[in-house]
Specification:
This protein is 26% helix and 18% strand. The protein is an alpha+beta fold. The protein has two domains: 171 residues, DD-peptidase/beta-lactamase superfamily (Beta-lactamase, 3-Layer(aba) Sandwich), CATH 3.40.710; 65 residues, no CATH class. It is built from seven helices and 15 strands. Helix 6 links the parallel strand 11 and strand 12.
């Protein structure tokens, strides 16, 4: 136990409703390294990025029952010595035609690449920015399907919160309230909230459905987000609503697949907790330089990284 590990680790836990950070670990030992790996590091996401690609595919017309071929692929790539890029599954095996649900459960790389190729790299690249990732973090090529995006554990947890809360982008924050020595509130966070059961949210969703029924589908537009207000709100009244960035049905489908990942797939180790409300996704990079797990239920999202 006294041994200093050669690897590092980070973990973030946040509330998917409003982004409140419930737990954060930035590294093994603060006295040895002040670098906060939970908020400052940018590491390849590996397969833990696949749920965002699947969400883009569902938005594009695919379903969990859609069949995609899990078979070898070869792409020209002048940057490689042999001029070819040949992605492969982690186990080196191929299962042939497979439903998307099973492909995510078993983290099939070749299915993810084919799926991304089918929906279009540019489309998917713009789509994943809905989850709070910047366009610069995500490469605009087919390697995106294998998780070559460089993200922090905090950014990953924020992205997974969109799936966990039904489709809303929240802003992580650390401090809820500050009181002075006399007990007077000098700061109170006013975060945007998913607040799916709030009357104003239900009214807003109804208006959006009516507007969508009247207007033709349009291209992507920037998603406006609001950080927690620095001023003290006069009276805590109606909550500020977080923007909806994906459809609730889309979030439901992705959650359904990720629950199967935990129940009988690559994330089955989480079943040691003996819970039936968990969804999650594992992720590893080449030579296991990065190992991820992101999981959630309705009340908390947690992302852990070791590398």
């Amino acid at each position: 136990l006294a041994q200093i590990p050669a690897v590092q680790a980070a973990m973030v836990g946040l509330d998917p409703d409003d982004g409140a950070i419930r737990a954060l670990i930035g590294g093994f030992n603060f006295s040895r390294s002040k670098f906060n790996r939970a908020t400052q590091s940018s590491r390849s996401a590996g397969s833990s990025f696949k749920p965002f690609i699947y969400s883009a595919a569902f938005d594009h017309g695919f379903t969990p029952a859609s069949v995609v071929n899990d078979a070898p692929l070869v792409f020209p790539d002048v940057s490689r010595p042999n001029g070819l890029w040949t992605p492969s599954n982690d186990d080196g095996k191929f299962d042939g035609p497979i439903r998307l649900r099973e492909a995510l459960v078993h983290s099939k790389n070749l299915v993810s690449v084919r799926l991304l190729d089918a929906i279009g790299v540019h489309y998917a690249h713009e789509y994943v920015t809905r989850f709070g990732f910047s366009a610069q973090q995500v490469p605009e090529n087919l390697s995106m399907a294998l998780g070559t995006a460089a993200v922090s554990p905090l950014a990953m947890a924020r992205g997974y919160a969109v799936i966990a809360n039904g489709g809303f982008l929240v802003d992580p924050y650390f401090i809820a309230q500050i009181d002075d020595r006399d007990g007077k509130v000098i700061y109170r966070a006013d975060p945007v909230r998913a607040c799916r059961d709030c009357p104003q949210r239900q009214l807003e969703d109804q208006r959006e459905r009516e507007h969508a029924a009247q207007e033709p589908a349009s291209g992507f537009s920037p998603i406006a987000t609001a950080n927690a207000s620095a001023a003290v709100p006069p009276n805590p009244g109606e909550p500020r609503l977080a923007p909806r960035v994906i459809d609730a049905r889309n979030a439901f489908l992705v959650t359904s697949l990720m629950r199967d990942v935990v129940r009988r797939g690559t994330g089955s180790g989480a079943m040691v907790l003996k819970r039936n409300d968990l969804a999650g996704k594992t992720g590893t990079t080449n030579e296991y330089r990065d190992a991820w797990f992101s999981g959630f239920n309705a009340r908390i999202v947690a992302t852990a990284w070791v590398g």
